[in-house]
Each structure stands twice: as structure tokens, then as C-alpha cells.
What does this fold into?
Amino acid sequence: MKAVVAAIAVLALPAAAGSAEAPLTGVTVTPPVICLQPRRPPSPDVPAPKVVSTFPAKGAVVRPGRLVLRITFDLPMACDGTFLDAPQLKSPLSWGDRVVKLTRDRKTFRIEGRVEKNSAYGLRLNHAPTRDFVGLSGQPLEPFDLDFTTSSGPEVVTIKEALAQDVEAGR
It folds into this structure.
């Protein structure tokens, strides 16, 4: 059985004349993104996908604590992909259940992690032995490395605060 995500919405509707507005509570149901497999054999006329932005950005310094790692591609992606640990660096994804969220346009992956103060972090995509970040066209992503560090600043505590750190997320 597939999971359904439900968000509670409160709507204000006018009540009878002369009375205050009465709130109406409803449920908005959004189906989950369906995983699609890449085209086999790959489409020869479609280029390989590229990473267009990340949070944190390469070489960035971010606050310690909760982190919502974001990787955005230029083309729609298949659901599979392995985040490999970068040599000599800590993994920002070693905490939590590693549930990856994929946006409806299939171009952005998000995953929650946790990072400590004054530390260096990194991860790798599509390095041997795994080349499983693949566009829907079937073309694999070229190997990609992401590294960043953390400051000694105050810890990010909530998911809302973690998402607010990513100024490019809404673009």
C-alpha cells in the first residue's frame, strides 16, 4: 500500500450574518512522487545530467546541527542513487534514517543529516563502484564531489531552521 501525505489546512469562511468567522478544517491529500526507472537503453540524444546547485554549496561554511542536504540537477532523475562517503571527511548523512525526498519535477533530492561544530564533511556521487545516479534518459551523472565545513556558531535545532539556511531552495 502506498503512503499518502496529508497536510491540515484551516480555512476561514464567513459565518451567518452578524457572527464571527467560523474556521473550517480540511485535509489536502497529495500523492507521493512515484519512482521511475531510467530509460534502457539510454537515449543517445539526451545529455548526461549535471549538478546545478547544492546546499551546502561546495566549499561553504554552514552552522552545525541539523542539516537538510539538497542536490539539484538540470534534468529529471531516476529515483536510485548512492551517497558515498568522501575519503578523509566525515559523512553529513551518518545520522538519521537516510530517507531521501525527491521533488515532483524529479530534479532535486533532499536528505536530512546532522553536522558537528568545526568539522569537515563530504560526500561523493557516481564514483566507482556505484554509478547509480542516472537521469530518466538513462544517461549517468558524471562523478561529483561535495565538501563543506561547519562553523563554531549556534546549532541549527529544527527542520524549519535547517530549511531556512538554504537560500536557493525556493528558486
